[in-house]
Amino acid sequence: MSTIPVRVAEANAPAAGTLGVLPSGTLIKQIDADKIRQSVTQIAGQIAGILQDVKQVGDFKLKEVQVSVEISANGEVSIVGVVSGGAGVRGAMTLTFSV
């Protein structure tokens, strides 16, 4: 089994910084590379499905899509988002169009 080192935060770790290389409560965990591969493939397919109809908007063609993702300690990949005080969750996605 091939693994990839991923920096993860310990649950309930104190927020105070340290003089070390990693912040307090941070661990390096070896994650199964196949699990990450499966998660990336799944989320990439879902994003491609969402953007399938956005190849062109008016005279502008979709040139590039940037999505911020994070890897959990279990190897699951998800879009980075922030729960706001309102009714929903905000995530980060950048769409670049060309003329």
Distinctive features:
99 residues; alpha+beta; three-stranded antiparallel beta sheet; two-stranded antiparallel ribbon; 1 helix; 9 strands
Describe this structure in words.
The protein has one domain. Helices cover 19% and strands 42% of the residues. It contains 1 helix and 9 strands. The longest helix has 19 residues. The protein is extended and about 50 Å long.
Care to give the gist of this entry?
This protein is α+β, with helices and mostly antiparallel strands and 99 residues long.
Helix coverage percent = 10-25%
Indicate the structural class.
alpha+beta
- Whole-number mean pLDDT: 77
Number of strands: 9
Uncertain residue segments? none
Beta-strand percent range? 35-45%
Rg result? 18 Å
Distance between the termini: 46 Å
Overall shape: extended
| Total number of domains | 1
The largest sheet has its strands arranged as: 3-4-9
**Main beta-sheet strand count, sense and barrel state:** 3 strands, antiparallel
Order of helices and strands: EEHEEEEEEE
Determine the number of helices (DSSP H or I, runs of at least 4 residues).
Answer: 1
Topology (SSEs and partners):
Blueprint: E1 3-9, E2 26-32, H1 33-51, E3 56-57, E4 60-67, E5 69-71, E6 77-79, E7 81-83, E8 89-91, E9 93-98
Antiparallel strand pairs: 1-2, 3-4, 4-9, 5-6, 7-8
